Known about the structure:
The chain has 409 residues and is mostly beta strands.
Amino acid sequence: MRFVTRRAGAGWAAVAAWACLLGGLAGCTGDGRSPVEIQLPGKPRAPEEAIRITPEDNAKGVPADGPLTVRVPEGRLERVVVTKVEDAQQERVPGSIAPDGLSWSPDPKAGKLALAAKYTVDAVARDGHDRRQARHTTFTTFVPGERFIGYFKPENRSTVGVGMIVSFNFSRPIENRAEVERAITVTADPAVEVSGHWFGRNRLDFRPKQYWEPGTEVSVRMRLRDVQGAPGAYGIQDKTVRFTVGRSQVSTVDAAAHTMEVRRDGQLLSTVPITAGAPENTTYNGKMVVMEMFDVTRMNGQTVGFGGEYDIPDVPHAMRLTTSGTFLHGNYWASPDTFGSTNVSHGCVGLRDDKGGGSDTPAGWFFDRTLVGDVVEVVNSTDKTVAPNNGLGGWNMSWADWVAGSAIA
């Protein structure tokens, strides 16, 4: 039997080499690198090292402008899907992988992330040794402490008159008026120029230079969600409403002649006798727009500064012209010979009517032929011109003055 004898030095060298490989002892690399940088073939990086995602997994309060990135230190990304999960619906965030395959970033044209929303990130990559690895993370964006909305006219899918003005009243004062105005787009078909005008910090109206053309289709796009209207206050609306402009009807009330000429598409439809505001309570001059219509409503003088002078519980065929309380309405309590001869109202325009509202009376006839958005212009009154922000009175401003009231003009 033969015995093979090995040198002790060689044996200890082998043991030391294996200890260096298995134990990762400092100084065994021979090139000064830290042992954590050594990647052995067959031993992949941990998922969070192989695919690095910002924000971190389960992060909360992430700003709407990110940052949002997916990176790998080596190899290449195969697929990245970022999804907003809200109310059982999913919406992907558009983005792309860089040409070198090492990073993914969102499309800058897609805008900011939604606030108060949960996002998921799913990424698949291959490392430098062509091994596939996947990672799934979630994060939640910042939840604002305060929100605002814009209450708007007209209603969605409504048919309106040619004088309709798109009007927003916001639930809180707006300080970043330009940003809010940019988030609302009013477009028309056929196309016309439309401009916004601010009345203070709570109200923003939109109108074209002239009355809308009959048949125009108008679209109001609201991208107010997550728009910062004031410090700490963000919008919540993201929707589109549409309305159609019907036939043209413009009526002219002559307070001195006690008549109202009703014109449809430029042609005189009828001349109706009226009663306007008495000398002590005159009717505003100027262009007014029908804002609301009621078959019957209550009119109480205490609500508009007249004390207890009147309280009529059943005023028929009432069409609101101003926020301050000017109506064009049916009147059954005045003598029939009042209409067309004298002015006796508290500032409204009255048409003869029956108690309960007659269908064949002047008031009933006009009510049945009126749309919200129709124009009623009062002339020859001794009162001042109605203020542009009293109701939808913006047509009393020149186009230059209107555009000057835009925050982005």
